[in-house]
Amino acid sequence: MFENAPCAYITLLPNGRIERVNKTLLGWIGHTAEHMAGKRFSDFLNMAGRIYFETHIAPLLRMQGSFDEFAIELMTAAGEPLQMIANAREARDAAGKALFTRLALIKATDRRRYEHELLQARDVATTNLESERETSELREQFIAVLGHDLRNPLASISAGARILGREAKSDKEHQVIAMLETTVLRMAGLIDNVLDFARGRLGGGITLDRDTRRPLEPVLHQVIDELRLSSPGRQIEAEYAINVPVDCDRSRIGQLVSNLVGNALSHGASNEPVRVRAVTEDGLFRMSVANCGEPIPEAAMDRLFEPFFRGEVRASRQGLGLGLHIAAQIAKAHEGTLTVSSTREETRFTFLMPLR
Q1: What pLDDT digit, counting tens, does each position of 285-312 carry?
Q2: Which distant-in-sequence residues (6+ apart) come within 8 Å of 110 by Cβ?
Q3: Which end of the chain has the lower number of beta carbons within 10 A, N or C?
């Protein structure tokens, strides 16, 4: 889901070597993924940057598992320094073994530009706004920038929870830490939805990076596994019969599945499984997410995919009411459809997309 994110991401193996970089970073520095894979992160820094990273950043990462914010210069393929602001967080398994470290980076010039634009927007809002439309546009621009900057403290919270988890002893401590980690996952999904909604309202719409070369099924496995971890005690059944390549944006399809399954976990019967099925048949890619429980009220069906709509009978549910709206927009961007049927026996969301 990170390939075309507004900020760059680098995934480092425990030995400090690069496992993966997203397209955003490759576009900034001009290197290829093949060229960077397997090399040390410090290989792409100047001499001063290497010394700083190896003597200050790397030791603290090994000790505390995260680093909130630091400045670094990456060398581009043309040999030019690119000033970046980065944060890092380490992922560990249940036994405490390091799995990988993810670096999130943003151009220092972009950060200064964002701050400058926010200051300008504040001045404009207080002096020159002439209509409610202009006020609304400004609010959405602010949300887009704010959503981006929320990722840094969220990563710090996640890193802190992991550190505390290594020292937790009582069941209550483990329960509190598990609750923190679940909240972090939920907040990350909310931030993604807010950013997508803001971009859509600003005219950008849902952007796609379609690709048939890599299979879709591993992405679905990963999303379902993450949801199982964040919803202990809930059962998610998954069935896949994807026999031909699917021309889609895999990260967006993963986001769509995450939103639909998350909705089913929130509103479905807790003692019944959520059922996910994805197949290719009759020239179509068909994916459905079904759950048991109370049916969706008939009055809510027509507005179900509207932004910020949660329905009166379930207004106490957590969330912004953007998940189904974003899922519908992802379906539309793929020239597909997202429909829903709801009875006392089952509520089912179905995504249909033509195969190319």
Answers
A1: 999 999 999 999 888 888 888 876 665 4
A2: none
A3: C
Cα distance between residue 311 and residue 296, in whole Å: 9
Beta sheet of 236-241, edge-to-edge order: 236-241, 274-281, 284-291, 347-354, 337-342
CA–CA distance, 194 with 221 (Å, rounded to integer): 25
pTM of the model: 0.50
- Cα separation, 354 vs 336, whole angstroms: 7
Measured between alpha carbons, how far is 35 from 18 in angstroms, rounded to an integer? Answer: 10
Select from 270, 257, 275 the least CA-distant residue to 327. Answer: 257
Helix (H) or strand (E) holding 118: helix 108-127
Residue 340, C-beta contacts closer than 8 angstroms, at least 6 positions apart: 296, 301, 304, 347, 348, 349, 350
Place of tokens 């405490």: 96
Mean pLDDT value across the chain: 82
191/151 Cα distance (integer angstroms) = 8
* 323: amino acid identity, one letter: G
d(CA 322, CA 59): 40
Helix (H) or strand (E) segment spanning residue 177: helix 171-201
| Structural contact between residues 292 and 346, judged by C-beta atoms closer than 8 angstroms | yes
Taking the C-alpha atoms of residue 295 and residue 344, their distance in angstroms, rounded to an integer, is: 5
Pairing of strands 347-354, 284-291: antiparallel
Q: Reduce the secondary structure of 295-332 to three states and give it as a string.
A: CCCHHHHCCCCCCCCCCHHHCCCCCCCCHHHHHHHHHH
